[in-house]
Amino acid sequence: MDDSEMAEKALRYAFDEFPEAEITVLNVVGGPSWMMGEATGLALADDIEEAAAERAEAVFECAHEIATERNRKISTLVGIGHPARNIIDRSEDYDTIILGAHGADRSRVSRRFLVGNVAETVSKRAPIPVIIVR
């Protein structure tokens, strides 16, 4: 989950369609960006894991709010690096991956070539079912 509306829709979908499932929200920090600002900022941090956790806080706050609306609980995980690779590498620990069709972005071009690529890559390479929410 990133800080996009599509990610929030994907989480709501997961709660609605899988009412008995244990839900884990993964936020990957430090992935590719136009100027590599996030990845560079992490690389310069004294404690990379702590810096990644701090950056994920806002996303997890939102996820917990959505969970509370649905009277549900979630687990959270922070990944560091490339989002698609993180999701795929962790996928065998889960039954299904649910993600938004595209995430937070700065322009229509970046959505198609950088962020939308995460959903496409995960759907092609994950060894478990993938649901892409629009």
From TrEMBL:
Domain UspA: residue ranges: 1-134
Pfam family, one: Usp
Tree of life domain: Archaea
InterPro entries: Rossmann-like_a/b/a_fold (IPR014729), UspA (IPR006016)
SUPFAM superfamilies linked to this entry: Adenine nucleotide alpha hydrolases-like
Family: Belongs to the universal stress protein A family.
Protein name, per record: Nucleotide-binding protein, UspA family
Gene encoding the protein: uspA21
